[in-house]
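Following up on my earlier thread - several people asked me to post the actual chain instead of describing it. Fair enough. Here it is, all 245 residues.
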Amino acid sequence: MTLLTAAFGLLTATTTGIPIPYSPRMDDGLAVVLLCCFFLSAYVLSRSRKFLLQLVKDFLLHRERTSIFATSTATDMRYLLLLIVQTCVLAGVSIFNCAIEIRPELVQHVRPLALLGIYVGICLSCFVVKWLLYSFLGWIFFDGSRTSLWLESYSTLLYYLGFAFFPLVLFTVYFDLNLQITIAIGLIFLLFVEILIFYKWLKLFCNNLHGVLLLILYFCALEIMPCLILYQGVVQLNDFLIIKF
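Reply from S.P.:
Thanks for posting it. Predicted structure:
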């Protein structure tokens, strides 16, 4: 009986097989998300390439004019809104890749697509909160034209950050890019964006040395602290998901 039981157990184990660990490259849902991002980028570039180039020129040359938000068409605004959503989606995918690399047990507690949706939702929420905060502070301390110019510049950075993130996400998902390299490249992108943000703040809002000191204070409060809060919030969320689910 012992031999029969052992043989039956071995046969069952062989039939059942060993479950394959979750891998983003084998996730069809994630592949569909990235494919949609690719087609969206291609479609917007084919339709609004000149408009996007104009945004870059206006950002770098700091042209004093009415905000392009007031002169662009409704179609252009829809395209730009889609690009912002795409940036948030790619940022969520990046967080998703890093999270399951550091905590592989996450996908055993929460479905991968649900987990990805949570991270994308967090990124979208951060964008909405910062947009409202910028609008509120601009309404209190500055005139409407400067605030509109800043929001336009901020949006331009987000559009192109999404384009930069896309190849990084592809390499991370399908070429097993090292986690340390992925984080380093992502931090370089974010550092470059923060430098451009501070540059634009100096051009728009700084008139003297006292203004520079205030800008540095606001920069730490509105740009540095939210990044740290986001990081700590994601860490705590992952712990919560593992414990509760």
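DSSP finds nine helices and no strands in the chain. That should answer part of your original question.
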